[in-house]
Amino acid sequence: MTNQITTKWLGNMAFESNNPSGNNLIIDVAPENGGEGMGYRPKALMLTALAGCSGLDVASLIKKMKLEVEAFKIETIANLTEEDPKYYDKVLIEYHFSGDNLNEKKLQRAVDLSVEKYCGVMEMFRQFSTLEIKTYFNKQ
């Protein structure tokens, strides 16, 4: 199976990229880098893809396991190298769950399955980054 994305230049430093879902997104850089700041930054999109991929896994497992979760967010904190080409050499991924009736053991299992088995973007990141995973449970 192959994926194909078409990314076309809109002028200046902006691009529009399509998506198999039919939703397009704009890529641009900050004004200090010659852009207008009207779109997503490419490296930040990588972190979004990482969190989104794993988040979808965990959300699916929450549903399958019939777990009660009031709120769930993923914080992704990445270290960018200083030399060109700049890339993320270390990434901390924090899973935050909130709710009155959290099943911590099953939620941790959902995170572990995503991190170790299901998330393809996580596997891609492992090729160039050191990953650190933390899970937080905030019972209310």
Shape: globular
CATH class of the largest domain: Alpha Beta
Tally the beta strands: 6
Class inferred from helices and paired strands: alpha+beta
Strand order of the largest sheet: 1-2-3
Looking at the overall shape, the CATH architecture of the largest domain is 2-Layer Sandwich
- Assess the beta-strand content as a share of residues: 25-35%
Distance between the termini: 44 Å
Pfam family, one: OsmC
Protein name: Putative redox protein
Organism: Arenibacter troitsensis
Task: Kindly summarize this structure in a few lines.
With 140 residues, the chain is an alpha+beta fold. Helices cover 32% and strands 31% of the residues.
Topology of this structure?
Elements: E1 7-11, E2 14-17, E3 25-27, H1 42-64, E4 71-80, E5 88-99, H2 104-118, H3 120-126, E6 130-139
Parallel strand pairs: 5-6
Antiparallel strand pairs: 1-2, 2-3, 4-5
Pfam families: OsmC (PF02566)
Protein name: Putative redox protein
Description:
The structure is a single chain. With 140 residues, the chain is an alpha+beta fold. The chain has two domains: 1-40; 42-139, K homology (KH) domain (GMP Synthetase, Chain A, domain 3). Helices cover 32% and strands 31% of the residues. The protein is built from three helices and six strands, in the order E-E-E-H-E-E-H-H-E. The protein has helices spanning 42-64, 104-118, 120-126; strands at 7-11, 14-17, 25-27, 71-80, 88-99, 130-139. The strands form two sheets. It has a three-stranded antiparallel sheet, with no helix packed on it. It holds the Pfam family OsmC. This is Putative redox protein.
